What does this fold into?
Amino acid sequence: MSDIETTDERAWAAVLRRDKSFDGRFVTGVLSTGIYCRPSCAARHPDRKNVRFFAAGAQARAAGLRACKRCSPDDVSRDEAAVLAAIDEIKSSGGRPLLSELAAHVGYSPTHFQRVFKRATGLSPAAYARALREERARDALSEGGRVTDTVYDAGFETASRFYDSMQGRLGMSASAWRDGGRGAVIRWAAVPTSLGPMLVAATEKGLCRLSFAEGEAELAARFPNAELRAGDAKFSALLQQVIGAVERPGTANNIPLDVKGTAFQEAVWAELRKIPPGETRSYAQIAAAVGKPKAVRAAGSANGANCVAVLIPCHRVVRSDGSLGGYAYGTDIKRALLDRENTAD
It folds into this structure.
């Protein structure tokens, strides 16, 4: 397939959830019907045993399959093509292209293209460019690059802009997160709370794990390539802040975090942090807030991928009918968190 990280298992999962973000990365060949489709095709799902994945339509046709007339897998919509062209322009420019320039480049009005781009990626073009620069900077620094070189190579005009943007956000690079925390030192402690045993772990830049009913074994499984150390005096101060945030809702705003995910996940997490204590949102509302109203299931998955319970308040997301829905640490803890937020002064 065209993306070396898109295994057959991931591809089939994308097909089952009809994930449009995978359109163009591969096509789904259905051997029993002799057709191939986009991953997001609305047709009834075939049996897995009859499915084979191809990098593109040409390979599927060479295997004797024909294009699905329902989803037209060989056609790239104008909006999709425009977003891909804009992303290429952002990456190649190395700087901060203006919205008007990007829109002109793809033949859209700025206002309309802003909506198109955010609907496709979950971020505005400016936010996408900023996230790209920050990721380049984090990765360069994690590989031992000089700060001065990193600032300009990542696309920042001045050092002050770099430090303003990266304040509180340097820590594990995106590649370190993908590689089990390689090169990172993580301090940790397991402490009792009124909600049960709580694991707290942090890099030198911020909290990277907050969970319930977990300990060193679970932390080591999540970050197998990091150096785990017992919390020191500096960590103890952070630990007390975290305990206070759990016991007294609404006191977590200034606790630094060191978490990373996909652009969509980070957009969802940002929306979660906007939910005031004592209020809830539905998965559909979160999906709409990040500009992808049809991605309700993906929003739920991003919610579940949150590594920092309470501080990124995934417990404030419920089903559209008002019922609690799931929670990684059990509905009793979710209900307790919501109850104490509802009764807090």
User: Anything to note?
Assistant: The longest helix spans residues 125-142.
